[in-house]
């Protein structure tokens, strides 16, 4: 019980720090310097209506490249760690109840629509809330539905890997094109910026975000499929 | 009264962090520790978004309601939102990693009790 | 409008704290804990929407609340008897 006492003491200390932070919090009335820059310059420089997207894809595009790399590494490590635990194709399987009629038919109806929604979300990332990460997660949830309907389904890891690596290469390729044709790595002005609010605007942002969407979708799908294909313990 | 929303979210976030840490430090089941970590993770995200919130302003999306010229006076800080977006995506990656390791640990000893794993204890 | 938003925000905050406690209590069944953690995430995404962050709200709802919960259930489904401490 001395252990629990230490934990409580630690958390009390931490709670004190947090209480101090809340008490010292003074809400701003105006934007700070960085945010003001983004608010004033996004429309002319980037042409994206959604400022969060402009920050993620262009102003801090390198961060996003790092982020998808981390995600790729995670998917790779999950696959590596679980490589020996993969269920053998002919392994004895505890009998599974058949998936209900509702789930099977519902999946057949919904999977194309979910894929379409995912694509819509990341293609419109520069105009409306959403973007590559959300759209990618929605794509992965279509794979999730397929896995739920048929737990023995084997998702083609080759296909996922091909989509993932092609998208990664394209992402870096477009970034390098930015150096050649425009102001720097991942600059979106390699394509015309267009009118604010149009689907074909914001330069390369819709393309980059679609690539990110495919990459993230493939990575999440690979994680889900790897975890689903492990054997029962 | 005015910035109450930010205070509520800030306090909730901090409380969730404390709850999550308490759960992660006191539970002995590895899966329960991971669940507690995700709760703490949500709390951190909530705190960061609450810090970027400015009272009476709207989301950082330029449209008919937010003309470009007045954007700086109408929108909230977009930067914490971009950071939290990254944090959420990385968070699920970390969770997946922890789950994969938990599965492998269970495979070696057939138990999830953290106190049974004494090889690295000194 | 504002008092209603604040009321909603308070309600969400209280529910989130309750669900968070539920998620971390050791006496709870593990599946309930996982669902409670998913609920915390889902309510947080509504809270994000009230804080004028629709992008974050979408991400949290799709990734934090949806995918994470299913990752947990995939592992929980494979580990039989893992519910015992």
What is the strand and helix layout of this fold?
The complex is a heterotrimer of chains A (233), B (122) and C (85).
Chain A: H1 2-23, H2 33-46, H3 51-59, H4 61-81, H5 101-123, H6 132-149, H7 157-181, H8 205-228
Helix pairs in contact in A: 2-3, 3-4, 4-8, 5-6, 5-8, 6-8, 7-8
Chain B: H1 4-26, H2 30-52, H3 71-74, H4 78-109
Helix pairs in contact in B: 1-2, 2-4
Chain C: H1 2-24, H2 30-50, H3 54-78
Helix pairs in contact in C: 1-2, 2-3
How would you explain this protein's 3D organization?
The complex is a heterotrimer of chains A (233), B (122) and C (85). Chain A has helices spanning 2-23, 33-46, 51-59, 61-81, 101-123, 132-149, 157-181, 205-228. Chain A has 233 residues and is mainly α. In chain B, helix 1 runs antiparallel to helix 2 (30-52) and helix 2 (30-52) packs antiparallel against helix 4. Chain C is 81% helix and 0% strand.
Give the N-terminus to C-terminus distance of chain C in angstroms. 48 Å
Contiguous low-pLDDT stretches of chain B (5 residues minimum) are: none
Identify the overall geometry of chain B.
elongated
Number of DSSP strand runs of chain C:
0
Q: How many strands, which pairing sense, and closed or not: the largest β-sheet of chain C?
A: none
Main beta sheet strand tally, sense and closure of chain B: none
CATH architecture of chain B: Orthogonal Bundle
Key phrases:
heterotrimer, B: 122 residues, mainly alpha, Helix Hairpins, 4 helices, 0% strand, elongated, C: 85 residues, 3 helices, flat
Can you describe this structure in just a few lines?
With 233 residues, chain A is an all-alpha fold. Helices cover 67% and strands 0% of the residues of chain A. The longest helix of chain A is centred in the last third of the chain and has 25 residues, at 157-181.
């Amino acid at each position: 019980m001395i252990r629990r006492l230490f934990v409580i003491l630690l958390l009390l200390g931490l709670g004190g720090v947090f209480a101090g932070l809340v008490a010292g919090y003074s809400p701003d009335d105006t934007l700070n310097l960085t945010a003001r820059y983004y608010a004033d310059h996004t429309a002319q420089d980037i042409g994206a209506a959604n400022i969060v997207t402009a920050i993620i894809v262009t102003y801090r595009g390198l961060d996003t490249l790092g982020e998808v790399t981390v995600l790729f590494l995670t998917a790779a490590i999950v696959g590596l760690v679980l490589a020996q635990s993969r269920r053998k194709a002919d392994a004895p399987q505890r009998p599974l109840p058949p998936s209900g009629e509702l789930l099977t038919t519902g999946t057949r109806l919904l999977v194309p629509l979910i894929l379409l929604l995912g694509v819509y979300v990341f293609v419109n990332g520069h105009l409306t809330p959403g973007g590559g990460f959300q759209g990618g997660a929605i794509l992965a949830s279509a794979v999730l539905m397929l896995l739920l309907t048929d737990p023995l389904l084997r998702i083609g890891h080759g296909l996922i890997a091909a989509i993932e690596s092609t998208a990664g290469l394209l992402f870096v390729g477009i970034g390098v094109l930015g150096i050649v044709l425009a102001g720097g790595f991942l600059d979106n002005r390699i394509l015309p910026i267009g009118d604010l609010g149009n689907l074909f605007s914001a330069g390369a942002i819709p393309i980059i975000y679609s690539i990110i969407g495919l990459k993230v979708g493939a990575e999440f799908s690979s994680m889900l499929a790897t975890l689903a294909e492990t054997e029962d313990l | 009264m005015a910035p109450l929303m930010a205070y509520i979210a800030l306090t909730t976030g901090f409380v969730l962090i404390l709850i999550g840490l308490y759960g992660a430090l006191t539970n002995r089941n590895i899966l329960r520790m991971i669940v507690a970590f995700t709760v703490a993770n949500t709390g951190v995200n909530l705190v960061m978004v609450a810090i970027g919130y400015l009272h009476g302003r709207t989301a950082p999306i330029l449209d008919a309601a937010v003309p470009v010229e007045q954007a700086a006076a109408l929108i909230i800080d977009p930067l914490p939102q971009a950071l939290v977006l990254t944090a959420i995506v990385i968070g699920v990656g970390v969770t997946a990693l922890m789950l994969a390791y938990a599965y492998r640990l269970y495979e070696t000893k057939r138990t999830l009790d953290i106190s049974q794993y004494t090889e690295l204890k000194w | 409008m504002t008092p209603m938003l604040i009321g909603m925000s308070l309600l969400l905050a209280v529910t989130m704290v309750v669900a968070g406690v539920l998620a971390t209590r050791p006496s709870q069944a593990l599946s309930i804990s996982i669902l409670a953690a998913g609920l915390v995430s889902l309510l947080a995404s509504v809270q994000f929407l009230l804080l004028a962050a629709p992008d974050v709200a979408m991400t949290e709802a799709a990734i934090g609340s949806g995918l994470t919960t299913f990752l947990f259930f995939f592992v929980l489904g494979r580990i039989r008897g893992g519910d015992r401490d």
